[in-house]
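Thread: Newbie trying to understand structure tokens

Hi all, I'm a second-year student working on a class project, and my supervisor (Dr. K.) asked me to get a predicted structure for one chain before our next meeting. I've only ever worked with sequences, so writing a 3D structure as a token string is new to me. If someone could post the tokens and maybe explain what I'm looking at, I'd be very grateful. Here's the chain:
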Amino acid sequence: MVYDLIVLGGGPAGYNAAERAAHGGMKVLLMEERALGGVCLNEGCIPTKTLLYSAKILDYAHHGDAYGVTVSGASLDHAKVVDRKDKVVRTLVSGVAAKMKGAGVTVVNGTGVITGKTADGFAVSCGSDTYTAKQLLICTGSSAAVPPIPGLKDSVASGFAVTNREILDLRVAPKKLVVVGGGVIGLEMASYFCSIGSEVTVVEMLNKIAGPTDAEISSILQKNYAKRGVTFLLGAKVASVVGKPGDGYVEYEKDGKTEKIPCELVLVSTGRRARTAGIGLETIGVLTERGAIVTDAGGRTSVPGVWAAGDVNGKSMLAHTAYREGEAAVNNMLGRKDAVDYRAIPSVIYTNPEVGCVGETVESAAKAGLKATEHTISLRYSGRYVAENEGGDGIVKIVLGEHREILGVHMIGSYASEIIYGAAAMVAKAERVEDVRRLVFPHPTVCEVIREEMFMI
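---
Reply by user tm_fold:
Sure, no problem. This is what the structure looks like when written as tokens:
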């Protein structure tokens, strides 16, 4: 049988694209070597947010006095939280499987390897079988990057050091945790383990946390977690990781000095790398750059009929970007011209408080040659925020272009993850200050401070 499309990888880009293609009339085969849902559903977005929600409930219990609610003896059973995480993941994975069945997508469990092109199309082997399709969509995702730090490889092998995959399955929380890397994954895990009582230290090479996040917002986030007991070592380079499960240390260099941090566990969260090795790209000549597949905004690779979406292209490495990239690729396959607007991809850090960002910062705008100004408002202009956040220090920062169009929105505070999509629409449409002033925001909400800010500009 010759398929219209073979999709390699059943993560957000792959399974969503497979469903869209099938509904578009294509005969689709989806290959996934592990579980449907990919990293996001099985060892990333969903399990992490499940843990963080339990931690948030515990935080509310511990700080209820400020709201007139006294809770005595509140505690968290980490093993039960992990059990619930597993249940949530099983439920959603089965849901994805049901969607594939309902759409008529054929699912093959195994590792797909491209073996070349024949008269019938592209050939892909999986185990002892070979499948052929007129087109390929590569969605093989990414894996955790493990840098060449002395002792780290052995520490990962022994279990003293873990990645995002292993830490989500721990049955016992470490008393002392060192997080190597102050990006999104590291901060979310630092947030969870700090809330449940672990002593957490974050070691970051840069002089700020949260990567490209607006500097003022990352500073507010850092101050919030420093107050809660997280230690941040910024501008610090990890020199070595030495130990065995439950007993070891991280050695780091900072300001010309070398220090050691004793700990029970190390989380390595130093970024992710596209998974392109061993899938046969060389057999058909697909162009890669720094290990990632080169694509245009429509998902096209250097080889006609071969497409790529999600982390494997190295562009955004966010699940929601992967969804959109897969959809754009399928639309183009079906003759519906489409392209991803990378200017308006929102990002969220699900700490407590949450961080939501989209578009340019003043710094990134300047690098892009854009004239921009920024305007900041406290979330305390929102009645709901004041009612729900005792002593909150959240802000919204809006970046405007020279014609008063919205280039970026950056915020820290409650509901940021649910608000930022609206800001993304403003950026995508290049709405101006006057346009947003005419929008009606519900009251009382936190999001209405965005409209309030428009009247202060």
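A couple of things are worth pointing out once you decode it. Residues 343-454 form a domain with the Enolase-like; domain 1 fold (CATH 3.30.390.30). The radius of gyration is 23 Å. Feel free to ask follow-ups in this thread.
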